[in-house]
TrEMBL record:
InterPro entries: DUF1059 (IPR009409). This is DUF1059 domain-containing protein.
Length: 57
């Protein structure tokens, strides 16, 4: 299982996204960023987010 912490992306937010693949994480992150933070995830931003995705222990 993979995880992305919203706080790691620079937001004051405790949301965590969990999914099996990077693509699923990025899709959920884009929805979260738009609905909660009013941010559109661009391809450049998505590329940067990939480095913040980590495997759960």
């Amino acid at each position: 299982m993979k995880t992305l912490n919203c706080r790691d992306a620079g937001f004051d937010c405790n949301a965590q996204i969990h999914a099996e693949t990077d693509e699923e994480i990025l899709a959920q992150a884009a929805e979260h960023a738009s609905s909660v933070h009013g941010v559109t995830v661009t391809p450049e931003l998505a590329e940067g987010l990939k480095s913040l995705i980590h495997e759960e222990a």
